[in-house]
Known about the structure:
Blueprint: H1 3-8, H2 10-16, H3 21-32, H4 36-70, H5 73-81, H6 85-111, H7 115-118, H8 126-139, H9 144-153, H10 158-172, H11 174-184, H12 189-206, H13 209-231
Helix pairs in contact: 2-9, 2-10, 3-4, 4-8, 4-9, 4-10, 4-11, 6-13, 9-10, 10-11
Amino acid sequence: MDLARYFSLVFPLGLAGFDPAPLFVALYFLAKNGNRSGRRTVLGFSLLILLGVTAWGLFLSLVFGDFIARLPWHQIFHAILNAGVWTLLGKLIIGLGLLGYGLFRLYQLRRGTNSETEKPAKNRSASGLVVFALIFILVVTTDVPFAAFVAASASQPLWAQCVGLVLWSLLSQFPLTFFVIALIAGKEALFSKALAFVRERFGAALRYVLPVLCVALGGAFLLDVILFPATRFALLPFLHV
């Protein structure tokens, strides 16, 4: 793969790996610890996420990149998705899990209860942020866009790998990237105000998004389990490769 094609993968794979969780954690901590020490801690946490993902990706690319690139991914997915009764059982478990979770959350919302707000807020310490950052960096290994970009990086020169993985990290965490810039410039309050505005205007509706999606996807899994063996109609084509 030439350099032009490699760098052309940064934008789509970076956006595909988007995860806003670190930004919300940083904003939550800053809301509880708004002094200078708290701002330094949040800045260190944010940089640890961004640079840690880059360093971890570089390590994986240098050590395991060729191995990951050589894996026959299509054959692996084909074997998993065409394992007969085991595939049907897996789809059934996933479908029931998603459907059950979605219905339970909708029931909670209808009753006016929210498990997230009923629990007392935890006072995150600086060490807690470090632990969260390290766990996040390890978990990102399971992110398919991240693994794909690591595999693509293996055939590139070291300087290109460094630049590419830095760009991937910044793009996949682009809200956190802007937050770091605002934090350095002393404008972090803008993010807090924007988040408060979104929660105030759309918070009630947004709480229903995930449960509804879980119900829809869980129902689709269950229908696919019934329809495909009987009619060969693939309600979820991506499960039939």
